[in-house]
From TrEMBL:
Biological source species: Lysinibacillus telephonicus
Name of the molecule in the record: Branched-chain amino acid ABC transporter permease
Short name of any one Pfam family annotated for the protein: BPD_transp_2
Family matches, as InterPro entries: ABC_transp_permease (IPR001851), BCAA_transport_permease (IPR052157)
Transmembrane residue ranges: 7-31, 51-79, 91-114, 134-159, 187-208, 220-248, 260-280
Entry GO MF terms: transmembrane transporter activity
Length: 294
């Protein structure tokens, strides 16, 4: 049972980060109907910038994190202006293909600037593990979960009560009606890409503190894709619940099934779940069901 709860706690923490990163996927999809397949590269840029500031310039972690978020916001805004906005009236597949090209470009930039080796953050959180009833919890896992939980609450309040949040929801529901009410669709697009880049950077920094930073972190973009499909591509709540579900199931598979098959099943489980969901509920657990009138 101790091993079970250990895997459960690890899954909850990792799943909460998945849910945070998936939030960026959902926002962009709701606003434009397109998937940002460069989201994994958004994730790895953040921790590399933060780590460079901390190690090369000796900047304190909180200051480095703030600068990282500003850089990520600028990156997201630049991508929307340079790559996405010219394709605003193009078919959705054009935007998706553009993000694939952007993904390759950003991945190449990461390899050229920072290389291929794994880099570790200086100690940011306390190092002494916590023993809770025989279950060992490292402080970085605990603090990561607390940070993500607080951020998810803040974003929920933001989308429900702020003017920008309400505008994003309105454009997601009906662009034409929102535009006729005086809302700027272009501004909403810019806001969604900026927020998506920020949450991706935060998720990357948290994962970097747990596992270190290397270019393979970009694979989280593919791992989070099953999360948003499971929860529903247009559902914020679905992204959060889907993140927890995938994180827990992935860690349980790694703990119990990987030793039986020689490893590797942990990385496959999210995609097996996606196949099952697509067969049973193509719109996801909380996604909007498409209605077609004939």
């Amino acid at each position: 049972m101790i091993f079970f709860f250990q895997m459960l706690i690890n899954g909850i923490v990792v799943g909460s980060i998945y849910g945070l990163v998936a939030l960026g996927f959902v926002l962009i999809y709701r606003a434009s109907g397109a998937l940002n397949l460069a989201n994994g590269e958004f994730v790895i840029f953040g921790p590399y910038i933060c780590l460079m500031l901390m190690t090369a310039l000796q900047v304190p972690f909180l200051v480095a994190l703030l600068i990282t978020l500003i850089f990520s916001a600028i990156l997201g805004l630049a991508v929307e202006r340079i790559v996405v906005r010219p394709l605003q009236n193009a078919p959705v597949i054009s935007v998706i293909m553009a993000t694939i090209g952007l993904s390759s470009l950003l991945a190449g930039a990461v390899h050229m600037i920072w290389g291929h080796s794994t880099k570790t953050f200086p100690p940011v959180f306390p190092q002494t593990p916590l023993n809770i009833g025989g279950i060992i919890v490292t402080p970085v896992y605990l603090w990561s979960f607390i940070v993500v939980l607080v951020l998810l609450i803040i974003f929920s309040i933001f989308f429900k009560y702020s003017k920008i949040g309400l505008a994003i929801r309105a454009v997601a529901d009906d662009q034409q009606a929102a535009s006729s009410m005086g809302m700027s669709v272009k501004f909403v697009y810019a806001a969604t890409w900026t927020i998506a880049a920020i949450v991706a950077a935060i998720g990357g920094v948290l994962i970097g503190n747990i596992n270190g930073v290397n270019p393979t972190m970009a694979s989280i973009g593919l791992t989070v894709l099953p999360v948003v499909i499971l929860g529903g591509l247009d559902s914020v709540i679905g992204a959060i619940i889907g993140g927890f579900a995938i994180g827990i199931l992935q860690n349980m598979a790694g703990g119990y099934l990987d030793p039986l098959v020689g490893g590797g099943l942990k990385d496959v489980v999210p995609f097996i779940i996606v196949l099952l969901i697509l067969m049973l509920r193509p719109h996801g657990l909380f996604g909007s069901r498409g209605i077609e009138r004939v």
